[in-house]
Amino acid sequence: MTHGKGMKYLYFLFSLPYSPHHSPPSSFPLPPLSIEDLELPVWNYDGSSTYQAEGSNSDVYLYPCAIYRDPFRLGNNKLVLCETYKYNGKCTGRGRNVIGRLWDSPRTETNKRKSCKEVMDRAKDYVPWFGIEQEYTLLDQDGHPFGWPKNGFPGPQGPYYCGVGANKVHGRDVVEAHYRACMYSGVKIAGSNAEVMPAQWEFQVGPCEGITMGDDLWMARYLLHRVGEDFGIVASFDPKPVQGDWNGAGAHCNFSTKDMRVENGITAIEAAIDKLSRHHVRHIKAYDPNEGKDNERRLTGLHETSSIHDFSAGVANRGTSIRIPRTVAAEKCGYLEDRRPSSNCDPYSVTEVLVRTTCLDE
Length: 362
Hints:
Elements: E1 7-15, E2 20-22, E3 26-29, E4 43-46, E5 59-69, E6 78-85, H1 96-101, H2 113-122, E7 129-139, H3 172-185, E8 189-194, E9 200-209, H4 212-231, E10 234-236, E11 251-256, H5 258-261, H6 266-277, H7 280-286, E12 313-315, E13 322-324, H8 326-331, E14 336-338, H9 347-358
Parallel strand pairs: 1-6, 12-13
Antiparallel strand pairs: 1-2, 1-3, 4-5, 5-6, 7-9, 7-10, 7-11, 8-9, 11-14, 13-14
Helix pairs in contact: 2-9, 3-4
């Protein structure tokens, strides 16, 4: 069935600590060219069903902040990423000006984008770039790792990383479909690969400047969940989905400022690492939605992780908090990799605290 002439669907998406959500789709005339072109009525959803409001006062407002092409409906259809604001904001009238006033309203506790955007605006002269390596695990609908024997375990880790063949990788159809969906939508996806544990995969998003990192990663996560529906496969962002001698899942964050990327930028990189070493606990609390409790299962000092209790840094060392890539050390400029963020982190919280610590000295 075709859409009415000049009509399109808009899907409004918002993030929660455990997954991205969407409100019911709506139809509007004419395709917007950018988020600034959107002239939408104030939109809301039932916050009591997402643990963001009580049932007696349940409406939560949506503030459009980024727009993407819809890879499922194609054509003029769009996906709209939104911030969420509480019920006691100003919401009379219609249109862009009204939505703009919602910035003065209290944000929901799960809206980490607002403060991140404020920090990125203050630090714009540093030109912060980010790239996040998002690991995840594919599961059957019963929660069992996809492709694993139902009675027992696969062989030990070793042959699965970047593997090829049905005896080494499981779920490549999901991975390829997700990659194409990201490319079509406008998410700045940079790559994907099979990971160390079978049924575990990774995709990379970036480099993205400022707030765009969080926007693109949340959209990429939504697209992964949505693609998984078509295959009957669940994508889990649990940082340690299988206990025992198996790798966990992280969201390693590659970070640089303009001073790190120029000749002899290694000096700025080392200065940033020194600042990070003095705020380890604060970063651990920001790197998973449960203030370190989720990451505690993953950051054990084993399986290519550092200890959650200690800060460390090194060149080409994947057992440290901060890794300096060997090429960066050789060229004396580039970026650093923070290996502490968990796979279920909020990228707005991760990028915000990195900029606060290394750029704004807060």
